[in-house]
């Protein structure tokens, strides 16, 4: 599938919340699942398939 404008289509492999309040999301973007840590204040648009 060609990516137009490199749209951000991510699949959530694993979602864990640390006690520090930091959300650690394991997402894969055209690649193996990689661990991405984001602040809880940040909002992520994720679509469950």
A few lines on this structure:
The chain is mainly beta and 49 residues long. The chain contains no helices and 3 strands.
Description:
The structure is a single chain. With about 50 residues, the protein is an all-beta fold. It has a domain at about 10-40. It is built from no helices and three strands. About 0% of the residues are buried.
Return the average pLDDT rounded to an integer. 51
How large a portion of the residues is in β-strands, by DSSP E?
35-45%
Major β-sheet annotation:
3 strands, antiparallel
Which structural class do the helices and strands define?
mainly beta
Shape: elongated
Helix content: under 10%
Task: Spell the H/E element sequence.
Answer: EEE
**Kindly, what is the distance between the CA atoms of the first and last residues, rounded to a whole number of angstroms?**
17 Å
What's the count of strands?
Answer: 3
Poorly predicted ranges: 27-31
- Give the helix tally: 0
Major sheet: arrangement of strands: 1-2-3
**Rg from Cα:** 12 Å
Give descriptors for this structure.
49 residues; three-stranded antiparallel sheet; mainly beta; 41% strand; 0% helix
Layout of secondary structure:
Blueprint: E1 11-17, E2 22-28, E3 34-39
Antiparallel strand pairs: 1-2, 2-3
């Amino acid at each position: 599938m060609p990516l137009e404008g490199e749209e951000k289509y991510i699949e959530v492999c694993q979602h864990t919340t640390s006690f520090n309040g930091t959300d650690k999301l394991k997402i894969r973007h055209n690649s193996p699942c990689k661990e991405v840590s984001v602040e809880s204040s940040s909002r992520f648009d994720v679509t469950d398939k």
